[in-house]
Amino acid sequence: MEIKGKKVLLHICCAPCSIYTLKELRNEGAEVSGFFYNPNIHPYTEFLKRVETLDNYAKIALMPLFVDTSYDLETFLRGALEYGKDRCLFCYRMRLEKTFLKGAETGADAVTTTLLYSKHQRHDDIKTAGEKLAQAYGIPFLYRDFREGWKKGIEESKRINMYRQQYCGCIFSEKERYGGG
Q: Residues 10, 19: contact at Cβ < 8 Å?
């Protein structure tokens, strides 16, 4: 999909993941706005750190940013538990659907996500969820494999002394990261 001159709404899970993604989208000529919606992040203090870090980075990067500070942890937990080992599928869909809603509201020409930057996310499942939502909302899902910039994004986030979390955000990944099974 050609995105030169198009308005792209970028769902952002955290500031470090947005560095390379934003750069690449801008290199393709897109007008990028960011959108933070992540009620999956636990604990709430981590959620607040990510919002603050992203807000600071958006100012530096001159990126318009929409932040949804609703923290519907209970809905996330119910859905994630219902999906069991495939809890990420619920999480992708929940966050992407909210992004498509924001895209429709703001007149976005396409929607994408920084989840596509992470080597730890399930790209095929993200792409499938995005394509289904694109059909439902009439806004294209922009799939790009941003993983090749993984190291560059990490290096840049360290260079600018950006807060970097050590797990994807949900309580389940926190448990796995710190040895709880």
A: no
